[in-house]
Design goal:
- The chain is an alpha/beta fold and 813 residues long.
- The protein folds into five domains: 7-93, Alpha-Beta Plaits; 106-189, DHBP synthase, CATH 3.90.870; 191-361, DHBP synthase; 414-516 and 781-813, 2-Layer Sandwich (Nucleotidyltransferase, domain 5), CATH 3.30.420.360; 570-777, 2-Layer Sandwich (Nucleotidyltransferase, domain 5), CATH 3.30.420.
- It is 33% helix and 19% strand.
- The strands form five sheets. Strands 6-13-7-8-12-9-11-10-14-15 form a ten-stranded mixed beta sheet, sandwiched between helices.
- β18 (445-448) and β19 form a beta hairpin.
- α17 packs across α21, α21 packs antiparallel against α22 (714-740) and α22 packs across α23.
Length: 813
């Protein structure tokens, strides 16, 4: 192409995740192949390229770069400028330039195919080396101390490269050119095996010792790419139950790792879309439907319809799971909703009494990051506006969309592999924003112009360790991204740790405060993912959230734009005896629904399901709390209705983890067809005092009770209940459309992690002419709230006096 057409010179400015991912060698190769002169360099904003040669060659270069960037690159934009030709015929990689830094940070990625081949090759100098990596894979975000992303600013700075590694690092034609974690057995990190007391254990092969210990039923803490896992044999009932006892995790399902997608498919139903997610370079945990003939302990995921599987992603995992090693529990190395352990000494202290052995290494983890959790949503509604969601990278977004045709993934926990990858916003923030998220399943979000950076999963901020991790995460993201917020977006709830942090910091630094209602943030998060502006209908369905009127919301039908919302309708409220205690013990909520449906006297004769196991003394206390309104706040969350149905159907009596009763109710439906007869419900005509019309759920409770009294099994009751909720929300959406004339609708809130409900409702809405929008990049639950807060704040900051607008009479802003 060198001689085709007139000679031109172009300057290309490339933004995105383009540093530390092999971008310059790719540019070098593409330019040389096309006979172009010029140079490429890293600078503070990203990558700068000047090309000179035939116009056809320059155009072909750009097309190739956009079509096939390096595997870990995420191009957010390319700008082109024509320059006068200089007669330059050779192409070179120029030294990096300084300036204001806006380059992006790459997530940590699984070992690439090339590194895995070398890992298994006895002739390779990195044979079985558990820290093998290159520019196309390995640690990034987790080892960064500061920017720019150079070796001294990572936790690899303590390891001096040997001559062979340095030669690779300096060679533009080498796969390890400027791979900052580059190392080998001569000069790099090493594995070690420690006992339960943290002292070294002498052994010839630490990996072999761990494999032997796991097969013997022992529990091993394994330090991987972004933190520690607790590993145990998933086939051993004794090992799994002992891990539950030690970790104080009664029933919440454990994540597992298997050697291959084929190994997963022997235990669960793995379709093309599930396989694509399992084998993607992000390597998330994927929820897959259980096979009835699996060989795993029933204690792995009791009463859940799913197993959570991931494949190996760190080199040490490939060594542990070689030769089709059986599936192992690989759960986060922590307690409850605490952050996972990342430091060796900290792990020994915090996991004391849990792990029998510790497989550790001496490469420090600067930022711990939980594994991401995903699942595939199927059905007509789930495919159309998830796979086409706006993502910040042209080339990667096409590959991601094509990876799961017709059945896109749903993000349930955003962590390793995805954070802190940016999301492109349709609204540009006039000033930097920090959105601090909610209390549970917390994540935070930083916004710079039209880029939103959502953090990894942080956890439950009621835990002091998680609260400390929250502040450290904010500090690190602000430093790495060089974003100093001028505005702080927070939840309306005054007692949340994140709200108190925002208020304290705003006062100390004289920052702008923008309060965002919880359910508005849910709908705004969907809009942010899809690059949507204007108004749309929003169904925000979760357990509880602080309402604009100071009451507890949770089953909301909204008219929403990025800047404001109006409450059109909501589920009827019911008392929660004991408040949070009712959330943890759904029998209290079920009893309150029964009191609402039948009154105190008749309710006593309608004790069905798990409610029949309660003591009459307790029921009298709860009834008294409801009657007197003492410690019994009224709430309208759909999650609480799921809790009540689960209890009354005889499925679950406790929420030992968030959403347990609802998850087990979904599982109870099993393979029952979607086309079950729905129960009755009613949409009230008169507006409610709290704003909007009301969906009366009492007929649903009466229907569930009648079926339970008639002896119908839980599977049929569950199928009918799910069908009812889908029909009920469809009817609410149609009413909202009649009132607003809007056709676009967003589904958000933790209830839409329920695959059966999302499938039923999305299909019905699409068949009725709605444009249905679902999540992918952030979870539908509270893990996505920070993105919504940030989007609302950006939109309001662009509106004169945006956040100071007086609330409307219907609770909007």
């Amino acid at each position: 192409m060198a001689g085709e057409g007139p000679t031109v010179r172009r300057r290309l400015r490339v933004w995105g995740i383009v540093q530390g991912v092999g971008f310059r060698p790719t540019v070098y190769r593409l330019a040389v192949e096309r006979g172009l002169g010029g140079w490429v360099l890293n600078d503070a904003e990203g990558v700068l390229i000047e090309l000179e040669g035939a116009e056809a060659g320059v155009e072909a270069f750009r097309e190739a770069l956009e079509r096939d960037p390096p595997p870990l690159a995420r191009i957010t934009a390319i700008e082109s400028e024509s320059l006068a030709p200089l007669g330059e015929r050779e192409f070179r990689i120029a030294p990096s330039a300084a300036g204001r830094r806006v380059a992006l940070v790459s997530p940590d990625m699984a070992a690439c195919d090339d590194c895995r081949r070398e890992l298994a090759d006895p002739a390779d100098r990195r044979y079985r080396y558990p820290f093998i990596n290159c520019t196309n894979c390995g640690p990034r975000y987790s080892i960064m101390l500061d920017i720019p992303y150079d070796r001294p600013a990572t936790t690899m700075g303590r390891f001096t490269m040997c001559a062979d590694c340095q030669r690779e690092y300096d060679d533009p034609a080498d796969r390890r050119f400027h791979a900052q974690p580059n190392a080998c057995p001569v000069c790099g990190p090493r594995l070690a095996l420690h006992g339960a007391d943290g002292r070294p254990v002498a052994c010839a092969d630490a990996v072999a010792a761990v494999r032997e210990a796991l097969l013997a039923g022992r529990i091993v803490a394994v330090k991987g790419l972004t933190g520690f896992h607790l590993a145990a044999d998933a086939r051993s009932d004794a090992a799994v139950r002992e891990l539950r006892r030690r970790k104080k995790r009664d029933e919440k399902p454990f994540a597992m790792m298997a050697a291959s997608a084929e190994a997963v498919a022997r235990r669960a139903r793995v379709g093309e879309a599930e396989r694509a997610l399992l084998e993607s370079r992000e390597r998330p945990i994927v929820l897959v439907a259980k096979r009835p003939d699996h060989d795993l302990s029933p204690a792995v995921a009791p009463r859940s319809p799913y197993f959570g599987f991931m494949l190996p992603y760190a080199p040490v995992h490939y060594l542990v799971f070689e030769n089709d090693f059986p599936p192992m529990i690989m759960t986060s190395g922590n307690l409850a909703e605490e952050p996972i352990c990342g430091d060796n000494t900290e792990a020994v202290r915090r996991l004391e009494g849990i792990a029998d052995l510790f497989l550790v290494h001496d490469r420090p983890i600067q930022t711990v990051c939980d594994d991401s959790v995903t699942m595939v949503q199927r059905g007509p509604g789930s495919a159309s506006r998830q796979a086409t969601a706006r993502l910040p990278c042209q080339g990667a977004s096409r590959r991601d969309a094509e990876a799961t045709p017709g059945a896109p993934g749903l993000m349930l926990r955003r962590g390793r592999g995805y954070a802190p990858r940016p999301i492109a916003l349709a609204v540009e923030a006039p000033e930097p924003i920090l959105a601090v998220g909610p209390e549970l399943k917390n994540a935070v979000c930083l916004v710079r112009a039209s880029e939103a950076f959502v953090s990894q999963h942080i956890g439950d901020l009621k835990h002091p360790i998680a609260a400390d991790y929250f502040e450290k995460t904010v500090e690190k993201m602000e430093r790495l991204l060089e974003i100093r917020p001028k505005a702080l977006a927070h939840d309306l709830h005054p007692a949340y740790y994140s709200t108190r942090y925002a208020r304290r910091r705003a006062e100390e630094e004289n920052l702008r405060l923008i309060a965002v209602q919880h359910h508005h943030a849910h709908i705004a998060s969907v809009m942010a993912e899809h690059g949507l502006e204007g108004e749309m209908i929003g169904l925000a369905m979760d357990g509880t959230g602080f309402g604009a009127d100071g009451t507890v919301w949770g089953g909301e039908i909204l008219r929403a734009s990025p800047a404001r919302f109006e409450r059109l309708g909501h589920l009827a409220c019911v008392a929660l005896p004991g408040g949070d205690a009712a959330v943890e013990h759904p029998v209290r909520t079920a009893w309150a629904f029964l009191l609402e449906a039948y009154g105190p006297e008749e309710a006593e004769s309608r004790l069905v399901g798990r409610l029949a196991e309660t003591r009459s003394k307790d029921r009298r206390i709860w009834a008294d709390m409801v009657a007197k309104g003492v410690s019994a706040p009224r709430a309208c969350g759909l999650g609480r209705l799921f809790d009540a149905a689960s209890v009354l159907a005889g499925v679950s009596a406790e929420n030992t983890y968030e959403g347990q009763a609802a998850i087990e109710l979904e599982a109870a439906a099993g393979d029952r067809p979607d086309e079950a007869d729905p129960y009755a419900f009613a949409l009230a005509d008169a507006p409610a005092a709290g704003g909007g019309w009301v969906i009366d759920t009492v007929p649903i409770i009466r229907g569930v009770v009648a079926d339970a009294e008639a002896g119908l099994d839980a599977a049929l009751i569950s199928a009918r209940f799910h069908a009812t909720i889908a029909v009920m929300l469809h009817a609410a959406a149609r009413r909202a459309r009649e009132e607003t004339k809007l056709e676009r609708i967003a589904l958000s809130g933790g209830c839409f992690a329920n695959a059966r409900l999302a499938r039923l409702l999305a299909a019905a809405l699409e068949a009725d002419g709605f444009e249905v929008y679902l999540h992918w990049d952030v979870p539908p639950g509270d893990g996505g709230v920070a993105l919504g807060q940030a989007y609302v704040a950006a939109a309001r900051m662009r509106t004169p006096n945006g956040e100071r607008r007086a609330p409307s009479k219907l609770g909007g802003y």
